[in-house]
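cache lookup: miss for this entity combination. No prior model stored, computing from scratch. Input as submitted by user K.M.:
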Amino acid sequence: MTQSSLIADLIEALRCLPGVGPKSAQRMAYHLLERDRDGARRMAAALTAAADKVGHCTSCRTLTELEICPVCASPSRDRSLLCVVEMPTDVAAIEQSNVYKGLYFVLMGHLSPLDGIGPADIGLDLLSIRLGQGEIKEVILATNSTVEGEATAHYIAELARSHGVAVSRIARGVPMGGELEYIDGGTLSHAMAGRQTL
Amino acid sequence: MTQSSLIADLIEALRCLPGVGPKSAQRMAYHLLERDRDGARRMAAALTAAADKVGHCTSCRTLTELEICPVCASPSRDRSLLCVVEMPTDVAAIEQSNVYKGLYFVLMGHLSPLDGIGPADIGLDLLSIRLGQGEIKEVILATNSTVEGEATAHYIAELARSHGVAVSRIARGVPMGGELEYIDGGTLSHAMAGRQTL
């Protein structure tokens, strides 16, 4: 025991950050204590405020400290389009690309029957109610291209069809800058099947 | 502005961690909010406690919340040996290697006249007093192998000699597992000059 206990506690606490192991945590702790105590205090305040006050948007389920998140509340968004994603980070990624002006619905996960995660756990009861209200004309499925993401997309597609709402799935294919040589077979077969006439 | 402000604040605050850019900070913030709010609260408490209470050991200048750090206070350490290092992380690295049982002196930096960092700024006045007390028989210089580290080591060597205390410098050479092919010329020339008879 050569580190004082408060520093050891801080190193241990920093390890709950994703991708931070013992060495990085030690480096972060010493960096904050040696050079940036104000940053440490600011971070503590931000963590406490966010952990205590951030909840879910009652409309789209994304993380927000507001009753209705800024996207759902914005009068300039197209309320006939609903993009379904798995996580709030997916919303952030799509927003940063600046190509979508509709609303979102955040599942906060995906269907995973083996883990006991069913339709109600990912908010599909809420989604069903919204689809029934008739405002939404198209559901864009933007769940991940994983087995669970595809299964979830399939399930939601059925749900939307049962409400008579149009459904689409974001295109799968070769990413921009991608070299064919390094792209897996599954992606290539989707890229072939989804080819578009020029 | 599509993220709520508390989440944006948290992402911004996390960026003061070393090596954390906007993408990692976002990932960390969402991870904490989605999966580990207790971890976030624990981290906030640890940050506040450490930022408010951690100061410097009055004996060796390392970071600690105690008046005298655990190493300096330990009765089992060899009080005739003093290892001089630049930062508290260096103490942690040497302690983890478990090969040294003496005391430390932490400069909290190195001499850098161009940045206005002189001997008093790295505690050499305090070191001089300790060397004058006669308890220390050998000073081991373990500052970094950089230009500033070498200059600082040279300065402290003169200081120790003026007090009649023996001085040594940790060996420079090929690191364990290092392949000669990939080792720089400076290190090789040190390794050659410091060769030992078998």
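stored under new cache key. The radius of gyration of chain B is 21 Å.
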